[in-house]
Write a structure and sequence with these properties.
- By secondary structure, this protein is α/β, with parallel strands linked by helices.
- Among the domains are: 34-136; 174-217, no CATH class.
- Helices cover 45% and strands 23% of the residues.
- It is built from 6 helices and 7 strands, in the order αβββββββααααα.
- The protein has helices at 2-35, 139-161, 165-172, 174-189, 194-200, 202-217; strands at residues 37-44, 55-58, 61-74, 79-89, 99-104, 111-116, 130-132.
- Strands 5-6-2-3-4-1-7 form a 7-stranded mixed beta sheet.
- A hairpin with a 4-residue loop joins β3 (61-74) and β4 (79-89).
Length: 231
Amino acid sequence: MDKSRLELKIGLFVLGALIILSLFILKIGNLKSYGSGYQLKFVFGNVSGVKTGSPVRLSGVNVGEVNRVNVIKDEQNKNIRVEVTAWIKRTQLVPEGSEAFINTLGLLGEKYIEIVPPGEYKKFYRPGDIIVGTDPIMMHHWVDEGEKILGDLKEIIIKLKEGEGTAGKILNDDKLYQELEGLISDIRQAKQGTVGRLLYDDTLYKELEALISDIRRHPWKLFYKTKDKTN
């Protein structure tokens, strides 16, 4: 009988300790939520994995964390929205007109809310205010766009192989290549002709350079007319 009473006392003591510990934790949470900061609400069409405890950043600096994530029905637009309630440090004021985005730490890291303030502002959001955020681009959208681009590239490659278009003719028709090769060979061999001199003789280049330099020094020569000599 004494043993049963001892076990009962121990059980009651453990239960009481657990209740006190739970109340203490809840109180600490309330103090964090209401004593040392304030709450802001964000509305998104999709939060892409943001959950309770996710960070909230202002210009890249941690200023709070997410408290609750609730799915709500937008009666005005007749669609489903996600309301995110966040706790913000009391010393961190969010300027009105700020934009909110869902961002990722690294490529596959934790999701968080990024707040980007406007260039100019005069007022700040008050506790309980709502910020309508910009929805993130879903992964399947990127996949769809990638498939479209790959399809377009495949079509272009097929047309090139079939010789369609100017690029296709250049790649598949040897006639144009042979003509270009012949033209280059003729130019290389025509060193005595006009084209050859332009390409290989520096005399004309030096004369043009001297003429331009002289005109820069004496621009009036462009408007000078020689007098006709009469016998």
